[in-house]
Amino acid sequence: MYKILTLNNISSKGLERLPRDQYEVASEIQHPDGVLLRSYAMHEWEIPDSLQAVGRAGAGVNNIPVAKMSARGIPVFNAPGANANAVKELVLAGMLLAARNICQSWDYARQLSGSDAEISKQVEAGKKNYVGFELPGRTLGVVGLGAIGVKVANAAIALGMRVIGYDPQITVRNAWQMESSVTQALSVDDLLTQADFVTFHVPLADATRNMINADRLAGMRKGVTILNFSRAGIVEDAAMVAALTSGHAHAYICDFPSNLLKDQPRVITLPHLGASTLEAEENCAVMVADQLRDYLENGNIHNAVNFPEVYMARPANRSRVAIANANVPNMLGQISTAIARANLNILDMLNQSRGDIAYTLVDVEQAVPQSVCEELCAIEGVLKVRLL
Question: Which pLDDT tens digit goes with each residue over 213-230?
Fold first, then answer.
């Protein structure tokens, strides 16, 4: 019986993927094999020795101590693309809110008073202050062309916008899914100087922190609108407010309210709604539950942020050993020797690496004795061994 600890409410659609005859799932559980979470901050959480895997029902993993997990041979799974449509729709909504001054004009209308005739007169007098513009012909810059960025780019093309994108690490799969009319930018700065709207779909890292700052804002088109539904910290808030106050920027729409931003008249802050749809929550939960289950039962790895992609079919009547280790020379030789020493015949073996981490699956004919596991664990550089 596998034990799964939930640190947040996880959609029942996802939890249903874990059969109750094989999995015990609870918000309070001792010695968990796996953890499922959404936004719970794990950095101060004590990692139990029993833990085999972590599943984040979402894309970002800033709330998880990934390096600590890697050092203990624990893969961290996420659900890239499962919330892509939800975020795409919010980006489109943000562009429309900014272009048509909807929030400002709605607030104006809510403050009207008097008789209906008087309100009608105020409407005619005040509407000239909220004249907007249309999206066709405007240029959208998309920084980050993963699952979300590609959907945003394609949707903007359908709206008649010109789209330029930048992502030096775009995958072949995402490139195939993107409209051919999306123009490639040579750099972030190349994109920023051409765009009327800029939207970000990148993780927060040293390379992306304060990507929008005073210097870059100064080089952008007058009247630019910035959209950030990615992570707080990608846009330098003080610089953004200064650009709005001076009139150089038109609007800032983001998912990360702060005392500096929440009362600014040209800022629309939302309470982290990017993936807050029932569909997105269900999609994320289902994806990450499936990945967690396949890892615990078969050792396969898909969509781990810190481990390589590894899949090996699991025929019946075979025993499997899963080994996480440091990516150093002669590790496969030592693993093979330890298994051969127990007179076990290796039927299949797969080894993949990612950065400093390597991962190996080994299928053998007979049941693997615990002594082999102990011998493998004793190899210098081995982080975790599981008998499946």
Answer: 999 999 999 999 999 999
The SS3 assignment for 67 reads: helix
Tokens of 225: 């609108």
Residue for token pair 């005073």: 214
- For residues 35 and 72, what is the distance between their CA atoms, to the nearest angstrom? 15
Contact 63, 39 (CB under 8 A): yes
| Type of residue at 137 | G
Express each pLDDT in 62-76 by its tens digit: 899 999 999 999 999
359: which strand partners? 324, 352
Which band of pLDDT confidence, cut at 50, 70 and 90, is reported for residue 159?
Answer: very high
Residues 230 and 322 in one domain: no
Q: Which residues are within 8 A (CB) of 313 and not within 5 positions of it... i.e. 6 or more apart? A: none
3 and 56, same domain (yes or no): yes
Number of separate domains in the chain: 3
Residue 124 sits in the same domain as residue 191: yes
Domain that holds residue 127: 85-269
Rounded (5°) CA angle 310-313-314: 115
Residue 216, both tokens: 């870059």
Residues 249, 212: Cα–Cα separation, whole Å: 12
Each residue's pLDDT tens digit, 245-301: 999 999 999 999 999 999 999 999 999 998 889 999 999 999 999 999 999 999 999
Residues 6+ apart with CB under 8 A from 317: none
Question: What is the three-class DSSP state of 246?
Answer: helix
Comparing CA positions, the residue from 374, 302, 347 lying closest to residue 76 is: 302
**Cα separations in angstroms, 134 against 10, 97, 101, 343:** 39, 11, 11, 73
The Cα 312–Cα 299 span in angstroms is 8
Provide the 8-state DSSP code for 350. Answer: E
Token pair for 206: 């040293």
Q: Which candidate, 158, 201, 202, 166, places its Cα nearest to that of 183?
A: 166
> What are the beta bridge partners of residue 346?
364
In 3D, which of 247, 154, 161 has the Cα closest to residue 201? 154
- Among 53, 6, 4, smallest CA distance to 31 is for 4
Based on the domain organization, do 175 and 288 belong to the same domain?
no
- CATH assignment of the domain containing 337: 3.30.70.260
Q: Answer whether 348's CB lies under 8 Å from 363's CB.
A: yes
